[in-house]
Structures are given as C-alpha cells and as structure tokens.
Write a structure and sequence with these properties.
With about 300 residues, the chain is mainly α. The protein has 12 helices and no strands. It has helices at about 5-10, 10-25, 65-75, 80-90, 95-120, 125-140, 150-170, 175-205, 210-220, 230-240, 245-260, 275-300. Helix 9 (about 210-220) packs parallel to helix 12. The two termini are about 35 Å apart. The structure holds fe (ii) ion (2 copies). One fe (ii) ion binds near residues 76, 110, 162 and 189.
Amino acid sequence: MLDAQRLLDDLDPAVERLLERHLATSKEWFPHEHVPYGRGRDPIPGEQWSVDDADLAGFELSDAVRSALLVNLLTEDNLPYYFRTVEKLFGADGAWGTWVRRWTAEEGRHSMAIYGYLMVTRAIDPHHLERCRMAQVSGGITPNPETLQDGFAYLALQELATRISHRATGKLMGDPAGYDVMMKVASDENLHQLFYRDLATAAIEADPDGMMVGIERQVAGFSMPGIGIPGFNEHAKRIAQAGIYDLSVHHEQILVPIVLRTWNVEQVTGLTAEGEQARDRLMARMAKSERVARRLAERRPTPALV
Ligand SMILES: [Fe+2]
Ligand SMILES: [Fe+2]
C-alpha cells in the first residue's frame, strides 16, 4: 500500500486530466432560475406549518418523498464537513486543491436550489427543516474515510448514491418545477461521480493493494452521508419503502456498475497477499449483497425508478 503523498504525486497527471475534463463538460447554471418564486408568499413569524400550506402546482407529496427531500437537502447542507474531509485527504495545492474548491462551489448550489424550491412552495415544514439543519451541522457527524484510498472509493460511491437519490426523488414529485430542481442537482452529482470514479480507477492502477483494501472497507461499511440527521433511520426506512433508495438500488445501481464493471475488481492484477485477501472478502460481500438485493427487489411495490 502506497503512502498518501506518494499516491497523490503518482496521480497528479490523472487529476489534472480529470479536472480539465470536468471543467470542459460542466455547464454554468443558476439556482435562482429553477425556483418558482411566483408561488412564494410572505412568512408569518411563528406560524405553524401544515401540509395544506404547500403549493405544488396541483400535485401532492407522499411522506416518503417529503422525507427524501428533507434528507437530501440536509445532506447538502453538511458541505462544510465534506470540504474539510476532502481537503484534508487531497491537500490544497495544485490541481488537487483546484478540484476541491471547484467541487465545493458546485455543491453549494445544490442546497441553494433545493432550499429555494422548498421554501417558496412550502413543501415541507420550514421550522422543522431549520431545527434539523442546526442539529445536524452543529453535530458535524459525517463519514470519515481513514485513508486516501478509502476516500477515493467512498467519494465515488457516495456521489453516485446522491445522484440516484436526487433523481429518484424528483421523479416522484409530480410538480415539474420540483422535478427540474432535482434533475439539475443530479446532473452535477453525475459529473462528480465520474470524476471520483475515474480517479479511483487511476488509483487502482497506481496502488492496487491499497485500493483493494480501501474499496473493500468502504463497500462493507458504506453509509449515506446523512447519518447525522435527526430521525435519519425513520426517514431512511420510508425512503427505502418508496423504492427511492434501498439496499437493492445500492447493489444494482451503485456497486455493480462501479465496483464490478468500471473498477473490474475481479481482474485487478499486481496484488500481494493482503490485496488478494481483501478482494476475497469483497467478492464474498458482493455475493451477499446480491442475495439481499434480489430478495428486496422481489418485494418492491413499484418498478425500478431510475
Ligand atoms: Fe450535492
Ligand atoms: Fe456531488
């Protein structure tokens, strides 16, 4: 396993290439252009919110979709801690630092757009949202990958998970303006996952052992970045029941395409005994995750959403 500085140095050309690709592909957009301000009204301080206050262009939201919107926004609100983690892993210099800052700037737009939409439409309780945000950001609990290699693996999985969750939530919203906000955010997350996924691919080549250990650990212990949110387990249950995000989605749409297809972990060469053992554990875990996914998919009430 390579030490972090050596791996960062080895990956300098890769990060430069991926940063350039990202800058060439991503398009400028403005959160305010996606918020339906015409539906807003002045707040009444202290007023208790109720479901009937919402203006969703004639559509209704299920409790599960409301949970998903709350969790997705609070996840974006926790950005200061993701920035801290990623800058600690990558450093502030050169293309690494340029990427971290650019990525942070893009992530900042996500909460602005979702928050704007939720406030003008009154789709969820604004007092509850703000109290949850205060609790979550004051707590500062976020997944903290222990090595650079773990970080590469986690970031790729997490960005794709976030993309899937935003997309699936948007598809269940009915309101075209809400759908549009979630798709816009999801398309940013897609570019982020491509960056981290391909960075991890380059890291596998440079340090197959370290990456295999990191990937195995992150697949084993993966949790969505929303773990610090008050009532997270309850929300996660609802979100899973609605088919927005559950272990089956996680397996079929994240682990299989990234770990098995893109990283092609079965075919990685150059492993020592430590790396081989990690791969064995990883493959056993993938087989188990497939069994769980299949069982869940059979019970799922709605067809796959993404
Ligand atoms: Fe985001
Ligand atoms: Fe992202």
